[in-house]
Amino acid sequence: MSAFGHGAYAARHIGTTPDDRERMLAATGLVREDDDERDAAGVLMDAAVPGVIRGRGDAGARVPEDGVSEAEALAELRALASRNRVLSPMIGLGYSDTLTPSVIQRNVLENPSWYTAYTPYQPEISQGRLEALLNFQTMVADLAGLPVANASMLDEATAAVEGMLVARRAVRGGSDVFVVDADALPQTKAVLRVRAEAVGIELVELDLAGGDALPESLFGALVQYPGASGRVWNPQGVIDAVHVAGGQAVVAADLLALTLIASPGSLGADVVVGSTQRFGVPLGFGGPHAGYMVVRPGLERQLPGRLVGVSKDADGQLAHRLALQTREQHIRREKATSNICTAQVLLAVMAAMYAVYHGPDGLRAIASGIGLRTALLRDQLAEGGAEVVNDAVFDTLQVRVPGEAADVVARAHGGGVLLRLVDDDTVGISVGEATTGDDLGIVRAAFGLPDVGGFRAMSLADLRLPRELVRRDDYLTHPVFHAHRSETSMMRYLKRLADKDYALDRGMIPLGSCTMKLNAATAMAAISWPEFGRIHPFAPREDAAGYLALIDQLETWLADLTGYDAVSLQPNAGSQGELAGLLAIRGYHRSRGDAGRDVCLIPSSAHGTNAASAVLAGLRVVVVACDERGNVDLGDLRAKIAAHADALAALMITYPSTHGVYEHDILDIAAAVHDAGGQVYIDGANLNALVGHARFGDLGGDVSHLNLHKTFAIPHGGGGPGVGPVAAKAHLARFLPSHPFAQDERDGIGPVSAAPYGSAGILPISWAYVRMMGLEGLTQATDAAVVAANYVASRLEEHYPVLYAGEGGRVAHECILDLRPLKAETGISVDDVAKRLIDYGFHAPTMSFPVAGTLMVEPTESEDLAELDRFVDAMIAIRAEAQRVGAGEWALDDNPLVNAPHTAASVVVGEWSHPYSRELAVYPAGVGAAKYWPPVRRVDQAYGDRNLVCACPPVDAFAS
């Protein structure tokens, strides 16, 4: 079937029709001869894309040429899902079977108001998700017993790495030794080893609970609490000893257990990390899940990632926003302390709302139920003659059955329960929220014990927790955690928050570099199926056959589309994919005896995470200049290559460039790096401007990361989840990520994320996107995106200069509008234009990146012509408003732009004293019945940074 046949998905995904694109081509000034058989997209692509890079090569040899219908794709996904066996997962190791409240699944996970939103950089239109993230931070801080939490991490293992790096920065100088608890989660230890080696940290593993002495010199230590073995012990003595040695104590804690046992903060911890997966987030074969990090006072400015804070708006009303944004990698580049530039917002919102829905009493009841079932099983196994290793328990047991462990695990598997084979003599058992009495019966039978006939009465004393570890202080005392017990109330709360926000379900989000395209409902459907949601990441290979087949197909398709030989889907964010690719290059050079190759050349226009990732991979950053057209300055590049020839490890370059143009010298650039012995890393952020026309591997790339949340339609979810696979040529394949628990064994450097396949639970989305589009549809999507960007640039260039263009005066999939002349002429800033766009019903384009004082616009292929015209018309109208300011008709300090955005209250409450009308304020040209009302006026960012508050404020703070 053609990608554009009746009912074909591609025609639903791509917003403009062939007739629309003919009109758009005319607007760009391109003229087609009468005998030219190319369609409009073909004419424009030939003008925009340099001939030297054109041609698919073998692209698509294994990618289906034609897409399938939505019904056919769902049927194929059902067939894959049926190959996964949904058993009761009692493996543990930081992953627990949980129950997602239906009201949260339907109104958050499956709701486009939440999953199509972008990172809340524009706080005035993000108040709902910012409030939800503030709930998350408050939940984490309360349970961990420390005051400052961030808005989520990628997973527990990478959160532990970031905790290690925070500790190193806090100590500053001295020792390079970091102690790791022998009872830490094994995947956490594996990720720590990979990351520590790259930055010169020496890991020392010790049995901390067993009394091993700390080394004389260290900068920190990681304690698992409770331990991976299930051991519940008091780490306060170890924490004190770490402090005496001059180090920082990092505690990896089970957040649900902290409803019953003393908080790490109360025991002296400096940093607490972990996962919130068991707060209602499905297992999903390992992710996505929201990790967390919380720190003591004094470390808040060392926190990686994003932090939601409280400020005020122009009317003095309370307003939320992202705090301390100067820590963002796009600004700090090689001086950044972390390469994390995303979060797991959608999953953090789910976890926070799980706590809101259940409240402190409900969470304690869930934890108590888990603990009591675990204690009951402990006693029954002990009474039956088994040796239970630990007496004090929360949710995990280790049971010694010399020489019989594999048989016990096999018998339980046959009964439908997954246990953990610790070693030949030891079985691990973890109880979760969803564990049933029948599951416990199967476990008992696996150990050869008779059915004991149900539960017996038990109390929390049966957990046998050390007296000093029983939690006695209150948590989750804020009213939000007590107000929404009924489904009606919870549903309405989630709706109120969603109504405050602007997401793709309201209108266009024209963010350059971010690709806010359609996230199809059909592609989203499968992530809620239990056959994908309830699979443990360490399940036996035979129980995850459907996942493994889907992963293999998706990796094959991505390799074909990029021109590479191997793909790893493990990195669970673009930044982690960058890091994995650079670690592969580092490993390759070292395998050849070239340990001295440690210089990474990075153009000044590059994404900020490039430089941060290079530093975290143990490389030295050398910046390469760009010319006035936005291209890499070839003269400067050659000079830098010559200056660092013996030490050159890699060049990182984005293609098309971060400036939104196709550089015609890319082949020469790659050749120059290769001639000097370096490797070429092509950042895949802009792959959506190449698919079907050129491949990174054919342009000289040795390795790239891809952003599935950009090119392949995984939702941004308000700032995450993301997926950042890394793809490489054959000579780098053995240096890609591997994992000790992977079902499909691979050579590699070790893991860069906690789960073998990263955020596998959302991979069905990209699988469905590629399957429904087919190569023809993917190519048409590229064409439509480039046509849309050139149409917008052509219509706006007489009003706002287009800063960069390729040789033919064409842009790629995005364009940069220069607002600096407007500022010089009228005094109106890029911020004023961005906020005024809210009144017109738009999310602003990307502000001041990669060039200060500009807007980067990316219209994507999924917007229709009417929406593109609505945006263009709004920008033209705003230009006219600015001219009225420049002409003196409106004062510079009182006009619709500097006062934007306008709330409903601002135009109906009190006297109207402005020189423009109320109607112009809130119903400017083109705004109709679908008016979006921002909940707050312009937020004062500086005030919030001076008065940092990052937990839920009391209710009276919201009073007028």
TrEMBL record:
Top-rank taxon of the source lineage equals Bacteria
Q: Which Pfam families match?
A: GcvP2_C, GDC-P
Q: Where are the coiled-coil regions?
A: none
For the modification N6-(pyridoxal phosphate)lysine, the affected residues are K710
Q: State its Enzyme Commission number(s).
A: 1.4.4.2
Domain (Glycine cleavage system P-protein N-terminal): residue spans on this chain: 12-442, 464-737
Domain Glycine dehydrogenase C-terminal intervals: 781-902
Any one GO CC term of this protein is: glycine cleavage complex
Q: Which CDD domains match?
A: GDC-P
Gene Ontology molecular function terms on file: glycine binding; glycine dehydrogenase (decarboxylating) activity; pyridoxal phosphate binding
What's an example Gene Ontology biological process for this entry?
A: glycine decarboxylation via glycine cleavage system
Record's function text: The glycine cleavage system catalyzes the degradation of glycine. The P protein binds the alpha-amino group of glycine through its pyridoxal phosphate cofactor; CO(2) is released and the remaining methylamine moiety is then transferred to the lipoamide cofactor of the H protein.
Q: Which family does it belong to?
A: Belongs to the GcvP family.
- This chain belongs to which protein, by name? Glycine dehydrogenase (decarboxylating)
